[in-house]
What does this fold into?
Amino acid sequence: MDYRKIIPCLDVKDGRLVKGINFVKLKDVGDPAENAAVYSQAGADELVFLDITATLEKRKTLLDAVKKTVERISVPLTVGGGIGSCQAIEELLDLGASKVSINTAAVRNPDFVKEAANEFGSEKITVAIDTSTNSQLPSGFEVIVTGGTIGTGADAVEWAKKVESLGAGAILPTSMDADGTQAGYDIPMTRAIADAVKLPIIASGGAGTLQHLYEAVVEGHADAVLVASIAHFGKFTIRQMKEYLAEREIPVNL
It folds into this structure.
């Protein structure tokens, strides 16, 4: 990747755009398709659409909400939430999603990553890893599944290496501890995963200032930064984020 990407994240619940803190305390932020259209026009490099309660509610991604979002944008869209089969991936790609993000289903059945990468190509398969601090594990970070509700006891860095070997095309590590706090990304976790694999890493969870984006790239070794609260609540525009990084000699697509 020759430039660092700014990727707004659309957390969707019941077809509405929401934003929480530490995966709870969700606030309604509006219509996902409308917000996606604004970000697409504002210069976002890509977008991520996460149906955040799909796994918890044991259902597939809301296809209608994805379709409406795809129709309003001109940038690649990654869709995640409740994706547990190649058929589900095919449905989303047929709707116009560029990539999918798999999380809980990959942990429960690692061969699903391999199967999906073989069928659709690694570049279509992002593995999301939700993490929480756990000092009992070698890296200090545990893999959490089912919308942030169940600890697995698995080491996040070891899991990242495993999904790379299975054919994942990118990794999206989100710190549950930092999510929505706007206190900064979990840099040690992001860097530990980035340094353990050769795949593109999308830093996620906790951006609150422009400095945080810079830290994710320079200290966290991330290839892209996911933003939610600072974009949804009008704190900074995509342009401001990119200009801030460009002024500090981080290559961005202005």
About this structure: Residues 92 and 201 are 22 Å apart (CA to CA). Residues 32-42 form the longest helix (11 residues).
